[in-house]
């Protein structure tokens, strides 16, 4: 056989063979090569979270009847990939989750940032979001500089990294008020008991969008934190979940969920929201 | 004034500067440390990545995005370099052998990989990707084999040429598999999407991009930085195009490398720059980022070791059977087959690329990545042992069979002649993906004034698409100067520009003196041309003897310069020089210096006189040069 022209023609000759192979490939399959998943309850993916509902992330009337949200849909996609028919939601306090108490769930999806301290109690998957801590204030309040930020009354949820961010990067004139639940903190912000809170960027955008104009995103801090699924430390499902999340990132699933549940502006938010210069 | 030392605070190092410092320390220290233990430097980078990664000292945490993103750019760069470094000339020269061996060296490991994947119930996409990562190979050991003088051995040439096919085929499979996992829709629509995408990519990379690059090099590329950036922009453009069709960007980067292969000769200054930045920054960063995925906890798991064992058996077994078939059916000797095996076992670039793509699209987990890293390490060790032993047993070819266009030395005294010299050099070098070096010769008295003319030479080179940085040759005796330069540059052809036929002394031209002292083909360029149009080849009337070395070279030069527009003319006297018209280029073998003094082209025409080499040349040399 003589093929004139070398590689270019070989490439073109290989295309029909490739097409027939692709037809046999199927689409978006999972495989033991990507890790396996064994649920604690047969046929059910049990997911821990805190503060139901969380706008844009866990929506619905009750944890037993979630209707949507980025993390809920992500849980459903995970269940579908692992061949599980049902997603069951377990609600815990955030500080319980990061301390390793998942309430018997297979994993937690709760905007959790992996840290070395948390890694002592949990195993973290590949990150599914990367976000900056973002300042949310009541409408009418602007945060143009660090001095203004320091003069505000701040609030934070217990056991979140935002407590350290407020203390170290903003160093407000008055210590931040600590709340057990995020819903309590947002109510306090709404009522004017505090002036500003930090949320992960997508949640901040979703919260402002759904507040009917009462809240607004003021600025983001000049750092990024990754957000990942948390699993029990000895879980054999870690590789399977990480592979699934990498697949969802690669095939655009996470982006689609972000656009649908947080808003099309979420993709541009990173560049649209001003940075707060925290250098003193 | 009092100094309060207690007020001084020292923070724990963090931030981008710290991460890059750690990264570059690994790049600096990793390879020499491993090399001192006689290991390959690549392993030092991967192990260094592990040391600083989240499974090691955690200096680069798992949440870090800078290193992985830079690593992705490094991966694109690696695949671009893999494409641009391949020797396509070998595919043309040994076409049949390269295609046959390339096909079996790809198909057998691919088949074994798919069978292993299917046996472990991985499903077709993961099994095919496993086959793809096992079927490619990287010519890590080729520099050593070349140093041993074996680059022209037919077995080595076949193995090197086959790399073009194995890597291209592996990346096409990778493109298909990753596309099937990333695109939405039915299997049929995905297949159409990927096939259309690959077709567009192939047309762009192998048809449009070389032409665009040639034009850009010509009009924008006089600045060395711009030429480098044009190369970078080329692979980024192909990668972006691939991505827009749902094909992995590395496939585009590799195709872009193939596209620029001829424009960026392996020994040229642009390739040197591409290699420099690649070796110093981009590729090491990628390898370090891969090392951060290395997890000893996962690596020592039974599952990982089992996978690694199977991968090694499939990759080494596949290449072994391929080389055995080549030995039995294609006429390679046993030592040659072993050397081919040593060259084709090491897995690095395309294997890593396929593995990381599989990992990033969620098709492979960390066990597979760690098993692939073990495969890479073991394959390099096995390949090195086999290649070292086989190198000693394969006889070095008696004549170093340089290709005529491999390294062309264009020497001129008049910068006005440089444009034609480079244009001829570019055409002769193209089939061999060779380089053209420009030399401006002058006497010591003229050295200072002539140095300023180098820019003119450089511009003439770029206008002809020649990647050269001309140098000044200051000489007391021109012939000696050219001879030394030709030897130092390991020239495959020396083209000496001569202002006029009358410039030849009564004792002969400088070119003749060079030809008399070296077996390297030497040609004299007389006159000047605006552009090369019709080419005439002068042949002596048929005698009883075989054609001279000069006549063979002249024929080859005419074919390379004129292509299909070569007019042959049989002549035994010099009347053809009188009939030469403006705009014509005439190529003729030259037997004596008397001819040189008598062949003055009219204005606007040029003559290339090919000399018979006077130095000893093995009988097979003439044909091997061609």
CATH superfamily descriptor of the largest domain in chain A: Periplasmic binding protein-like II
CATH structural class of the largest domain in chain A: Alpha Beta
The number of distinct helices of chain B, counting runs of at least 4 residues, comes to: 26
- Domains counted in the coordinates of chain B: how many? 2
SSE order of chain A, one letter for each helix or strand: HEEEHEHEEEHEHEHEHEEHHH
Instruction: Determine the mean pLDDT of chain A.
Output: 87
Query: What is the overall shape of chain B?
Result: globular
| N→C terminal distance of chain B | 83 Å
Q: Taking Cα atoms only, what radius of gyration of chain B do you get, to the nearest Å?
A: 28 Å
* Helicity level of chain A: 25-40%
Please give the most extensive interface between any two protein chains, plus how many residues each contributes. Answer: A-B, 51 and 61 residues
Summarize the structure in words:
The complex is a heterodimer of chains A (280) and B (626). Chain A is of the alpha/beta class and 280 residues long. Chain A has two domains: 34-129 and 226-262, D-Maltodextrin-Binding Protein, domain 2 (3-Layer(aba) Sandwich); 133-220, Periplasmic binding protein-like II (D-Maltodextrin-Binding Protein, domain 2), CATH 3.40.190. Chain A is built from ten helices and twelve strands. Chain A has helices at 7-25, 70-81, 94-98, 146-151, 162-170, 182-191, 201-209, 238-250, 253-261, 266-272, and strands spanning 44-49, 59-60, 66-68, 86-91, 107-112, 123-131, 133-138, 154-157, 177-179, 196-200, 215-220, 225-231. Chain A is globular. Chain A starts with 6 loop residues before the first helix and ends in an 8-residue tail after the last helix. Residues 1-7 of chain A have low confidence and may be disordered. With 626 residues, chain B is α/β, with parallel strands linked by helices. Chain B folds into two domains: 16-393, Na+/H+ antiporter like fold (Up-down Bundle), CATH 1.20.1530; 407-625, HUPs (Rossmann fold). Chain B is 60% helix and 8% strand. Chain B has 26 helices and nine strands. Chain B has a nine-stranded mixed β-sheet, sandwiched between helices. In chain B, helix 18 (418-429) links the parallel strand 1 and strand 2 (435-442). In chain B, helix 14 (302-329) runs parallel beside helix 17 (366-393). In chain B, 56% of the residues are buried. At the A-B interface, helix 1, strand 6 and helix 8 of A face helix 4, helix 5, helix 6, helix 8 and helix 9 of B.
